[in-house]
Specification:
The complex is a heterodimer. By secondary structure, chain A is of the alpha+beta class. Chain A has a domain of 37 residues. Chain A has two helices and four strands, in the order E-E-H-H-E-E. Chain B has one domain. The two termini of chain B are 23 Å apart. Classes of the chains: A alpha+beta, B alpha+beta.
Chain lengths: 92, 160
């Protein structure tokens, strides 16, 4: 089973600045879910209204694609290091 | 060899299941074992490139010249100098990305095709179909790009 991303770690370091942030995505997920549920009637109406123009299908597909892309982010990591700088973004 | 694999082979020997079924079951066990492995440790430690099996990550690494400086000024990616870059992209994200190409308007695809042709690449972006994604990703498992720049920096693109 593919688990959703739980934590996001951002680390930026240079000569003058040292910044690190652990973002608990698992806490944001329930908030996003509630937000989506509240907005879902509006989204549904929008999709139905736009269906005959073709954009409804695109909107529906976009929603699904955005959800799948977010779900697939677990394991993504970017690590860039210079002599004095360092940028790290990892999604766990 | 795990007990499950032994049982499958025994069932095959006893002709309780066909060779195809045995193959499917063994593949399922292998993929489960792969998924249950410690991703956090193995996946970013730099397993040997060209690792066979189901690819899980696309890795892009840029290494500065051995013993060389990253940048005289200590700045990152300036004046064409190279820092150490390590990017790991999950295959599932690439899969989702390829599926997103279905959202690109046909006009934009035509523009992309003509831009590719200008660069000498005769490829129709519209020919990428969601049904072919799995084959494409599987084929990526054999891919390994290894480039050494003029300043000695090394760029590697591989899957693991």
């Amino acid at each position: 089973m593919n688990w959703p991303p739980m934590l996001m770690h951002i680390k930026i370091k240079n000569k003058n600045t040292r910044f690190g942030l652990w973002l608990p995505l698992f806490l944001l997920l329930p908030v996003a879910l509630v937000f989506f549920l509240v907005l879902s009637p509006l989204i549904l109406i929008g999709i139905i209204v736009l269906w005959h123009t073709g954009w409804g299908k695109v909107a529906l597909f976009s929603l699904k694609a955005a959800f799948v892309a977010f779900w697939s982010l677990r394991g993504f990591k970017v690590d860039i290091q210079g002599r004095n700088e360092c940028v790290q973004i990892s999604i766990i | 060899m795990s007990d499950n694999k032994k049982k499958i082979l025994e069932m095959l020997a006893e002709k309780k299941i066909s060779a195809d079924e045995a193959y499917k079951l063994l593949s399922a066990i292998d993929s489960n074992e792969g998924e249950s492995g410690d991703e956090g440790h193995d996946a970013f430690k730099g397993k040997s490139p060209g690792n066979k099996g189901k690819p899980k990550y696309l890795r892009v690494t840029v290494m500065p010249p051995v013993g060389g400086t990253i940048n005289g000024k200590g700045n990152l990616m300036q004046d064409g100098n190279v820092g150490r870059v390590n990017v790991r992209v999950p295959m599932s994200l690439i899969r989702a990305g390829i599926k997103l190409t279905a959202l690109i308007p046909p006009e934009a695809l035509d523009k992309a095709n003509s831009a590719l042709k200008e660069k000498g690449i005769n490829f129709d972006v519209r020919s990428i179909k969601t049904e072919d994604i799995e084959d494409l990703i599987e084929a990526l498992g054999d891919m390994e790009i290894d480039v050494e720049g003029g300043k000695g920096e090394k760029v590697k693109v591989f899957v693991e």
